[in-house]
Amino acid sequence: MTDKPSVLITGASSGIGATYAKRFAVRGHDLVLVARNIARMEALAERLRIDTGVAVDILPADIADTVQRGAVETRLREDAKIGILINNAGTSLAGSFIEQTTDDIERLVTLNTTALVRLAHAIAPRFAHVGEGAIVNIGSAVGLAPEFGMSVYGATKAFVLHLSQALNLQLGPQGVYVQAVLPAATRTEIWGHAGVDVDTLPGVMEVADLVDAALVGFDRREAVTIPPLHDASQWETFEAARQAMIPGFGQSRPADRFLANA
Ligand code: NAP
Predict the structure, then answer these.
(1) Is the C-beta atom of 65 inside 6 A of ligand 1?
(2) Quick check: is 80 in a domain?
(3) Residue of 33, 34, 36, 187 to mutate, ligand 1, most atoms within 8 A of C-beta
(4) 47, 168, 172, 205: which could join 178 in a potential S-S bond, CB 3.0 to 4.6 Å?
(5) pLDDT beyond 80 at 261
(6) Is 88 left (phi over 0), alpha (psi -120 to 50) or beta?
(7) What is the number of other CB atoms lying within 10 angstroms of the CB of residue 200?
(8) Are 182 and 143 in contact (CB under 8 A)?
(9) What is the extent of the structural domain holding 111?
């Protein structure tokens, strides 16, 4: 037991989520691990209890399933010790848009967006009420790059970025910190699920480096953390260009280039 807030991590059985679990355990936070693979979570939990002395609960759930996800939402609503949500569980799909099945696409969208926003919505009211708490949403650089050809996956990650930025604006003044983390290619099992040999990719980041960098952004209370982006001014320029458009959206008349005789 510790007086630091507990951290609920989805997708904690491998990759980025398991690494967050190790890092927060070392920082002295009790953990609630969520994923489907119970054996892997039990092995991780046992090691973390021995190595760090924190309490680790396992909450097995397929969070793409409405009923199983409901138990996680209830835990987030009712467990007042949970002060940090790491919304990390997510997956990708092999093939092009046309090759993917409609059902697989729906499952991907449900896991990467519906589950993420429902879990954030389960905990945000309590965080806002007590005036503190943090929600970390794992997006992807793919959400900024339709050129990568991962159409639906990228669209779910664009959703994660927009939602995170919007929630940071809405909930920030109430004391709630919301961070979007945008990894690019990172060495985890997700690539195997997408039918890609990670060793054929250039510039793959090791998962420990990715999470350690994301936690530097977390400690600095960055709204958007992009560990592989070396030139931070590129993001600042992108954001400034986007924000410069906003005052122009409120127009009663279409732009001249859309007038019939233009
Ligand atoms: P990973 O090693 O495959 O981990 C995915 C985690 O999500 C696993 O713990 C998996 O556990 C869990 N998960 C999958 N489906 C689930 C479901 N229906 N319900 C509950 N848990 C589920 O991949 P990762 O790279 O660490 O992925 C973590 C996040 O990072 C994802 O959101 C991914 O989109 C994002 N990301 C990864 C990369 C990269 O290159 N690796 C880049 C950008 C963004 P179980 O199978 O036990 O359920």
Answers:
(1) no
(2) yes
(3) 36
(4) 168
(5) no
(6) alpha
(7) 8
(8) yes
(9) 6-258
Cβ atoms < 10 Å from Cβ of 15: 22
- Whether 1 is in a domain gets the answer no
List, by residue number, the catalytic residues: 153
Please write the tens of the pLDDT for every residue from 160-205. 999 999 999 999 999 999 999 999 999 999 999 888 999 999 999 9
Q: Is the pLDDT of residue 3 over 90?
A: no
Total count of domains within the chain: 1
- What distance in angstroms lies between residue 117's CA and the mean position of ligand 1's atoms? 16
Tokens of 234: 């590129």
pLDDT at 193: 86
Among the listed residues 156, 170, 167, 182, the one whose alpha carbon sits nearest the alpha carbon of residue 234 = 182
What pTM did the predictor assign? 0.98
Express each pLDDT in 113-153 by its tens digit: 999 999 999 999 999 999 999 999 999 999 999 999 999 99
40 C-alpha vs ligand 1 centroid, how far in Å? 14
Residue 1 above 70 pLDDT?
no
CATH classification at residue 77: 3.40.50.720
Report if residue 115 sits inside a domain: yes
Query: To test the ligand 1 pocket, which listed residue (14, 33, 229) has its Cβ within 8 A of the most ligand atoms?
Result: 14
Rounded Cα distance between 118 and 184, Å, is: 25
- Report yes or no on 224 lying in a domain: yes
CA-based nearest residue to 180, from 196, 197, 192, 163: 163
**Tokens 């994923």 — which residue?**
35
